[in-house]
């Protein structure tokens, strides 16, 4: 309960300064009890007599002896007393705010000495400062409050003193706090600042919360006896700014190490700060001793920051990265990485073993907030560089195994309320293995959405058939260049320039014939424009083709018309036995058939050229390799047909509220082809097959293939004769097929619900967090992908991902004398398992059955050492082999304090 003593009544009752009782007394005793004070005469006779708060079961009387009234007022502030018209003066030693205090056992007041004492779980609060402990003494004359911890019957400390000033919280053996000055003297204390903990033998705390410590230890380990600490004699803590110490020594498990540092600075401030980025010490077998990722961070304000990092090695290799990021909330955000590296491997005196490579890599990402300019969007994802950059400067397997770099810059514009839109893009694709580069710029489109010119402005009743006629317009334009990366920026690059434009005007109509049958006739006109013709000629000496180009303006056109029918047919077989586990099987067929006609308008675009030493002639187009390709060369009048199937069964289930659940047996199985009635040969097109299913919601299976219905001659050329009309019956020749199977298994995660909740909370904050914080999250995700051993989930005991792929290709040898059948199949797996709750093994590998060798393999062993993390990364064989061991603290503030040893081996 809270008590407030009225100053004027008590001033008349005793000689105690009135300001002293300008506080609130709180007792946690379950039953209320009165306060018994001696009267004025008794005090005059016996000055040693002490008023004591006694435990009773009596109710509090409405009037205490000598007019000492207990009221329901929770406090009487100094401001209200100053406004009192009674004329009573305020004591000089009164405080500016009330003091709230309570204790579990008892509160003893020494009126004469102006002191009170609290026993067992004492708690005192003054303004924003709160102090708890086992016992407390307060002296009003000095304004000093002393708190001490307790000791139980076993001699162990209990109820340590805890001082909380609103910004930091510290526990200690004892503390002396001065209410008047705000200073404190603390003994054997431990305080938390951000991710770090500071323990001190003795601390002097200033009114501005600045702390001066004596015989200190700084650590990020949250144990009472930390695994490691930086020991320093003197330390200074400026809250929310930094921690500074003098000479410090690293201590591990209480044992001092030879590692000394002349001073230490641990930042505590949040937000953007300009400063140094400490390097990481590494040992690289190919490059020597090195310092990685050292540099400087420039915080240039709310909208821009720049990070400059550099690597340097003792054998002469070095590299640098310039990384600016920019952002404007609700507008846009992006970042760029410009990297340059000079790699030297081997001894320059031994030419055959020496490698020198200059590489660069540029990446840029930009995204625009959809609310910034409705209807307009600009985005960029750019990645290009030299073909050998990843070979010498990348260590994670995923990036090293990826032979493609691609870029895309896109601008799009939608006119609100208008049926048209515009899109312009620049694209780039680079194969680091073949060293071929393809650039498309500009690559754009202008589309007019389907409009219905015969439709009434106000639709009333059923629309007429002609009101469903729709028309649209699509314009595509493209410039592309395909060249070797060695000719970048040279005339040979621009000699490969190809440009073109394509116009399409489709007319569509949809007519429902029956409830499940729809007729869709259409007419489509296409016209293509080119700026160059390509002419191929056979070179008998080199037994190859010579290519020449004719510049100018050229056009090609095509027209097609057709109609299609589509429907769905359902069939079900129900089992008669009602107790059967399987109750029914349902089969759904979705056939489609269409007729189309397209006249030959582009025969002039084709010519015949000798294709081999036998004199055989092949047909080529002047526009092979041009944007949008050539137009069809033959008249087509025929059928397009296909069918897709779905199969599922209905089984009993106790887990479903309906008592049944559906299981998919076959998600889909389809066949598609076409037949040309007016072709002089090869009327039937190859059959395209596809199938897909998901077994037990665990195993994903997909298949696709191509069947050619025609026979071939002794040289492997197709002849106009169906395979089923040969000596042996056959539905066709399987020329290409692919099957892929994948599955994933993992044990139950005990913290899955908590993690899912945290993920949902992060997703909800996507639009609330500042762009700088979102960018930092993206950087952390990138670090997790590149350093899987440093970010291990020990809550999942094991996990396994499996994938198998089989590719079949049937062709002909180069001399065309024999068939060639190529099987490419591979098994890949990745996963992890915990040897113990603190040891995790992560592995990724596979097997190539055609080459009969193990594919790229990585092995990571991770050890959770509470406040430290150890990871061992191994690439045991292959053209790129590596071994590295890294030990580093988990806390982000000490992330750069890592020990790394790396050995790398290249097959150049």
TrEMBL record:
Q: Where is the LPS-assembly protein LptD central domain?
A: 243-710
UniProt region (Disordered), positions on chain: 750-771
Question: Which one Pfam family would you cite for this protein?
Answer: LptD_2
Taxonomic superkingdom:
Bacteria
State the protein's name.
Answer: LPS-assembly protein LptD
Organism from which the protein derives: Chitinophaga chungangae
